[in-house]
Design a protein that fits this description.
With about 300 residues, the chain is of the alpha/beta class. The chain contains twelve helices and ten strands.
Length: about 300
């Protein structure tokens, strides 16, 4: 099975790296200094689950240079999703499956709008990882899980074969019966945590220990679940406490990728995180004051540092 990693940052670089380290045919799409470092020195994984160096690692700037792939692990930032999907257009075949592992709940929809004839599958990634320097992926938590499945729960032999490869590579890979619910449950944790860490500049421990910020996290979680219900997602009575338990269990020093991006003066995924909650809530008449405030407060930095 030929695997293309579209977006070789914390998510794509880590999971694609694990697959490559296990001997699978993996090509990484990257750019800039990260691409150059991978091509020259290989891809280094620094992880609590064991370090790995993939060298040589096949890395390209243009996905066309990778040839046709069976699976595309689509893991770009949402701000780059449309342009990255357009790049893929000449590089996929009729049988290629694109699995979206982006933040938020709209990633697969964005890709599908650009590639209407492609098979695009929703995916979820649970991991705290980033690029500390070009050619290196740092995995700083004890969780690294991906979930993916057909939206209607139908059997898909190619996805099952990909899941088997993931498991053989030591990746916790799950095919849930309801991938849409899985997306929203993660979103109920991700959007609040990303928003509050980025807004305050603090990591998980002080946010949980301070009554005011902990209350902010809790109200933000409830708003996401309220919007999910309005979207027709199955939400259970204990989901709120389950999501809070996930936040309570995050490593003390953990922050979010959006907080990393703000510090680096990069464009933020705000439109698809707190901004997405507020936008979807407004569509259904569901109040989302916490996320609306976060989105408005961070909007001054949403575009990142102007490129000279």
């Amino acid at each position: 099975m030929r695997i293309l990693v579209m977006g070789s940052g914390g998510v794509g670089g880590y999971f694609g790296g694990r697959l490559a380290a296990a001997g699978n045919d993996v090509t990484f799409v990257a750019r800039g200094a990260h691409l150059e470092a991978i091509q020259k020195n290989g891809l280094q994984l620094d992880s609590q689950f064991g370090n790995a160096l993939i060298k040589p690692a096949r890395a390209v700037l243009d996905p066309v240079d990778a040839g046709r792939s069976d699976i595309v692990m689509f893991a770009t930032k949402m701000v780059d999703a449309e342009s990255a999907a357009a790049q893929l257009m000449p590089a996929i075949g009729a049988d290629t499956i694109i699995i979206g592992f982006q933040n938020g709940v709209e990633g697969a929809d964005v890709v599908k709008r650009v590639l209407p004839d492609a098979c695009v599958i929703p995916g979820v990634a649970y991991i705290a990882s980033h690029i500390p320097r070009p050619g290196v992926i740092e995995h700083a938590s004890k969780i690294a899980r991906i979930e993916f499945a057909e939206p209607d729960g139908a059997k898909n032999e190619t996805l099952e074969a990909f899941q088997a490869l993931c498991k053989a590579a030591g990746i916790d890979a799950i095919m849930p019966a309801d991938i849409r619910r899985a997306l929203w449950i993660k979103f109920a944790m991700l959007a609040p945590f990303s928003g509050v860490t980025t807004l305050t500049g603090h990591t998980a421990a002080p946010l949980r220990a301070t009554p005011g910020t902990y209350a902010l996290l809790r109200s933000a979680v409830q708003e996401v679940l309220d919007v999910a219900k309005a979207e027709g997602v199955t939400i259970k009575s204990d989901d709120f406490e389950s999501v809070i338990k996930m936040i309570d269990g995050l490593p003390d020093a953990m922050t979010s990728s959006m907080a990393h991006d703000r510090r680096a003066e990069k464009p933020l995924e705000l439109e698809w995180l707190s901004g997405g909650v507020a936008r979807l809530g407004a569509r259904h008449g569901v109040p989302t004051p916490t996320h609306a405030f976060i989105a408005q407060a961070l909007s001054v930095d949403a575009g990142g540092k102007p490129r000279g």
